[in-house]
Write a structure and sequence with these properties.
By secondary structure, the protein is an alpha/beta fold. The protein is built from 4 helices and 6 strands; from the N terminus they run E-E-H-H-E-E-H-E-H-E.
């Protein structure tokens, strides 16, 4: 069992030694332009480019809620594009976050982290534009990653 470590900082500049996976939540519409993805795109063009191509070619691949795309952005550093929100706006059908999709995606991230011997780094996934509650997301992370002994660091941006 591994604890979740909380730090102030930028999840696109993860702390520590060894291989690292940066996990974040994407929508199922192919939209990339608000929230944490902007920080990713400022640092590396590859995650956005790969996500947009993955969405564009979705008829021929696994793109959809719960799916994950791993994009290598540096030596020993990957970004996990996790499809964990339906649409982009809060409306009559509620908030866009889909906890079951985040849970499924985290299981895939855990497998990849074990394969790579990587720690996992993230903002408070699903709780920004997706409208989720950390009290619902944190237990998913603990269950999928922490229970397997995978080190997780959650970054709160700002001072």
């Amino acid at each position: 069992m591994s604890e979740i470590t909380y730090v102030r900082g930028d999840a696109t500049a993860p702390f520590g030694k060894g291989p690292k996976l940066i996990a974040h939540v994407c929508n199922d519409l192919g939209g990339w332009g608000k929230g944490f993805v902007l920080a990713l795109s400022r640092r590396w063009p590859e995650p956005e480019k790969a996500y947009r191509a993955w969405h564009r070619q979705r008829a021929k691949n696994d793109f959809g809620l719960g799916a994950v795309q791993f994009v290598e952005v540096g030596r020993g550093l990957w970004v996990a594009n996790m499809v964990g929100q339906r649409g982009m706006r809060t409306g009559s059908k509620g908030v866009p976050v889909r906890y079951e999709a985040i849970d499924a995606a985290l299981a895939t991230v855990a497998d990849k982290a074990e394969e790579l011997g990587a720690s996992v780094h993230m903002p408070r996934i699903g709780c920004g534009l997706a409208g989720g509650k950390w009290s619902r997301v944190e237990p998913l992370i603990a269950g999928r990653l922490g229970a397997r002994g995978i080190a997780v660091t959650v970054y709160d941006f700002g001072d």
